[in-house]
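Running this now, will post back.
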Amino acid sequence: ERVAEVVEAASRLILLEPDDGEAHVLRGAAHFLSGRNAEAMADYRKAYVLDYRDAALYDNYLEVLKKDRQC
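Update: finished.
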């Protein structure tokens, strides 16, 4: 599955470049698409702590929050 491939690729990148906020956002989005909201939220928070500022980070973070509140 493509989503699993994205998680794997982003995870490898994070191992090499742990301060790469974009990689955390990418992996977070893949986790979210797989229904793994806790993992998605952890990656989004890490990107934020790394001072990565991107509209996708905020949009994705809000989507996870909305989905969690609906459950």
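The two ends are 25 Å apart (CA to CA). More later if anyone needs it.
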